[in-house]
C-alpha cells in the first residue's frame, strides 16, 4: 500500500512532498494510517486533533493517545477542545454538523496562522460509498450522489482511492496502534449495517467495484458542475435585485426547461422546495410561502423574494420532504421512520397516509377545535387552554400543526387522535419539536 | 394493489382508460399482473407476445400459454416469432440487445398499423433499482443512473412505482397463473444475486427506500436532460459540417468547462472515449484515432472527424473502458473479470497490470516477434506463420494486439506468454474475438 500511496500522491498532489501540510488526526484507524504513511515517506507535516468532548473520558483518552504519538515521533501538534453540544444548540445544528463546522473553521484558522499549504483528511473509498448509499436511501439529487472531491480548496483527501481493507492491512502489517471509537457501534448504526451487510455484496458484483464507483462519482461531479454553472447563469439573468428585494418574472421562469429542476435549484438555496413553489405558481396572486429566513410572494406575473420578518408571520407551509423547519420559538424536524414510538408532548408519530401535504403551521383562529389524545370526543381549543390553565396570550402565541383545516398537533402540548400512527400504519412520520425559548 | 394502480393510472395516464392500448406480455409474473390489472379495470387492450425462440420448447410453451389466456378472456393478441440469434449475428449485437431491438421495432409497426395509443410494458421499481446497481458496479455516467422513464414516446410503464413484492402479492391473492422463465436462474445470475442479497438490505435502510430511489432517478433524469441540451447547443456551435467532414476548433473546444465532460459527451457518440481524445489533443499534429465507424484526426489547431474507410486502416487504438471494437473481419470484446479462465485461440485472459493502454491493434511489421504460448523462448512472426503453414497473404491480413511495442496476441491464433493472467493477478481482463468472415 505504501508504494501505491506514494505514487498516487506524487502524481496527483506533488506539492505535498516538499511543503508543510497539516493532517487531521482523530486517533482512529484511518487518520493514524495517513499520519504513518506520511512519516514513512519522510514528509514534513503537523497534526491537528479536535476534542469534541462528546464521549467524556473517552474523548480525553483519544486526545492523550494522539498527543503521545506526536511527541514520540517529534511531530508538531495542535489540540483544541470544543464545547460541541453548546455550539450545536446555539447554532440550531445537529451534533454531527456542529462538529463539522467547528473542525473546518479551526483548520482554516490554523492554515492562516501557520501557512500550511493544505489540510489532509483520511476519507477513503468506503466512506464515499457509504455516504452515497445513505443519501440514496433517503432520496437525493445529483449533489447527494457526487460525494467528496479529492481536493476542495485547501482540503486534500489523498486516501480516497483506497479501500478500508487496504488501510486495515497496512495498519496490521506495520503494527500500528489506533483508538476504536465506541460511538461507531451506536451513533453510526446505519453506517455499520451498510458496511457489513451491503457493501461486501456490492463489491462481489464486480472485481473493480470501488474503482468504478469512484470513477462514476467523478463523472457525476462534472455533471453537477455543469448544471451549477448553467443555473448560476440563468439566476443572474432572472433574479432582478433591488436592495433586499428580488423580483422574478414568472413568464421568463416558465421558459426554462426542465422546469422542475430549475425551480428546485433556484429556490432551494432560499429554503423553498420545488413542489411548494410549483404550488405557489398555480395559486392566486397574493399567496406567499415562508422558509426559515425568506418569504416568497406571488404578485400577479412576478415572484417577490425577500428576507423574512418574523413578527408578521402567521402561517408557514411545511411540505413533505423538508426535514426541518424553524418557527419563532420552536425547531421542528420531520422524519419517516420504520414504526411508531411513544407519543409525548414534544414528539409525535403520525400516519402519513392521513396527512395532506403541505402541512400548514398557523396560530389560533376563532372556532378552532381538535380531538385531544387522552380525552373522548372533540374539544374547542379555547376550552382546552382554559382547562390547562393557560393564558389568552399563550393561546395567541401557540403554534398549531394542521392538515388542511384539521388540527394535527397543538405543538409541544397535545396531539390530535385522528392522525396518530397505529401499529398497522404502513407509513409513519415522526415529528419532534425542540423549544428554542 | 388494484386501487393504488388504478389511482396511479387515472392520475398519470388518464388517456389509457378510454383508448385502445397494446400490452407487451411475455407470460412472466410482471406482464401477467399488468394484463390482469387491465382486465380487472375493464379497459380495452390488446396483447403482443414475442417468441424470441431462445429457449426452444420453453419459448413455444410460453407463447401457447399467453395465446390461451388471451383466447379465454377474448383479448385480441398479436404473436410473432423471431430468429433472434441470426439477427444478433448479422447486426453484431448481443442476444439481449438484439431481442430488444426486434421487440421495439415490431411494437412500433403494430402501433402504426392498428392505431394503438400506447404500448405498455411491465417494468417495476425493483427492475429499475437492479439496473441502477448493475450500471453502478461497472462504472457509469449520469445516463446509466437515470433509468427508464415512466413514459417515453409511445412506451408507457405504469407499474414503475410498484415493487416486485406488490406484484407477487396481487398475483397470489388473485390466483393468477404465469410462466417462470428458466433463463432467469442462469442468464441473469448477477441480477438474481442483487435481488436476493443486496436489495433486501438496501430496503431495510429506509422504510421508503424504493420510493425515494425513484424520486432520485427523476431528479437525475432532469439533470441529464439539462446537460444534454447544453451539450447539444455547444455541439451546434462547435462542429462545423462540410459534407461528410466535421471540423472542430481545438482552442474553442478548450474553452469549455468542465472540459472532460464536454469531451466525453461530444465524442462518445462517435465511439471515442474521453481519455483517448484527451491523449490525441496533447499529441503531435497528424495523429489519428479510429472507432468502429469514424476517424478523428488532429490537424494542427483543428480536429477533423469523418466516416471511416476501412480499406486504408492499418492501426486501431483500443482504450481501457471501451468494451468492444470491430475490425474488418473480427469483433473483439474486453471485459474485466473476477479471475482467469482457460485461454483458447479465440479467448484470452490477460493480467491487466502488465498492459499499457491504449492497446494498439495493427498489421504485421518486418522484424515482429513474440513469445508464443505452448513454446519456449521467442519466435519471429514470419517463422511462426511458416511453421503454422499460413500464407504470406494471411500474414498480411493478420491483426496483432499490442501493448506498446510488444505483441500480446496474434488475434484468433496464439497468445503471447508474457501478458497472460496468472492465479495471483489482481486484475484480469478477458478479451474475446469473434470471426465475422
Automatic annotation (TrEMBL), chains A, B:
Keywords, A to Z, come to: ATP-binding, Cytoplasm, Ligase, Nucleotide-binding, tRNA processing
Q: Which Pfam families does this UniProt record tie to the protein?
A: ATP_bind_3, TilS_C
Query: What Enzyme Commission number(s) apply to this enzyme?
Result: 6.3.4.19
Could you state one GO biological process linked to this protein? tRNA modification
Lysidine-tRNA(Ile) synthetase C-terminal domain residues are 359-433
Subcellular location, principal = cytoplasm
Asked if ATP-binding is a keyword of the record, the answer is: yes
The reaction(s) catalysed by this protein are: cytidine(34) in tRNA(Ile2) + L-lysine + ATP = lysidine(34) in tRNA(Ile2) + AMP + diphosphate + H(+)
Please give the Gene3D superfamilies that the UniProt record associates with this protein. HUPs
Recorded GO cellular component terms are: cytoplasm
Q: Where located? A: Cytoplasm
Q: Is Phosphoprotein a UniProt keyword of this protein?
A: no
Q: Which GO terms describe its molecular function?
A: ATP binding; tRNA(Ile)-lysidine synthase activity
The entry's family comment says: Belongs to the tRNA(Ile)-lysidine synthase family.
Q: What does this protein do?
A: Ligates lysine onto the cytidine present at position 34 of the AUA codon-specific tRNA(Ile) that contains the anticodon CAU, in an ATP-dependent manner. Cytidine is converted to lysidine, thus changing the amino acid specificity of the tRNA from methionine to isoleucine.
Protein known as: tRNA(Ile)-lysidine synthase
